[in-house]
Amino acid sequence: MDRLLQPESKHQPMAATHPRKALLGAQGGAIVLPVCDHYSGVEARMRKSLQLQAEMTEEFGACVFDVTLDCEDGAPVGGEAEHAALVVELALAAASTARVAARVHAVDHPAFERDVAVIAGQAGTRLSHIMLPKVESVADVERAEAALQLAGAADLPLHVLIESPAAVHRAFDIAAHPRVQSISFGLMDFVSAHGGAIPASSLRAQGQFTHPLVVRAKLEIAAACHAHGKVPSHCVVTEFSDTAAMQAAAKRAAHEFGFTRMWSIHPSQIRPILEAFAPEQQEIETASKIIAAAAAVHWAPISFASQLHDRASYRYFWHVIERAHATGRVLPAEMRPYFQSSH
After folding, report:
1. 119 with 104: CB under 8 angstroms?
2. CATH 3.20.20.60: which residues of the chain?
């Protein structure tokens, strides 16, 4: 029978080297974000979203979803400046544990520079990132980066939204930019950009996983992100009152298409996303045992359940633990010390 290498006692301290440090290389150092990104642009809904985030942070012991305050679709025409000021107010008033972002207007919109100057300039220290819509090329990312520098927010990460066939073609170049932390897929604009060549059924929860052009776009974005250690974020499901459709779409995004994050446009979608992206409890238990055993022998190879494990598989199992923590799952006791200073 194989012997699982473990610390001599359950009270023995774990190896001093944190798994993320020990397992750097390949995707060991990939960015870790909450698996759900919740969007709202109307004042009442933005306030409710932040309140819900605070409540669920208390419930789970970690911030399990981002709140992105939306200027692009949320600001009324002619009221862009006032909306940007509101976003600043809400971001500054959010709880210290909050993860708050802002979606600004696209780089070719007249309000873009003002959005960045006001929001990043006044609330940059409280924001987790800026979401940049309708990115077509690396040049758009560089323009946004320059605007952030002018606003005094040179270190604020960028998340970008790819929404056209040409942008999908450039996904690997965009993902390679050091300021880009995550790429999201804009389904509705992508379908519309094809001039009727993609049917309207591809906008729905089920159809968006079957049309070849949409499937190709999603896989290109996921592959580009994983190639550069960035986070691929899946698009919206517009049938927000259909829980079954939401759960099915989230599971496919997570388990078949390689996405590690997904958009929510209604509070009812948040928990189904968390559930779909969370590891199964048995997988969490197995991953914990393997990581604990690996740490005890300073990341040398081990034998577990008749299988050899080394740093390559340790990276996978550590990602399971990180995803469990990011989705609010209760971790086995031996894994909890790794996250005590995370929040």
Report:
1. yes
2. 36-277
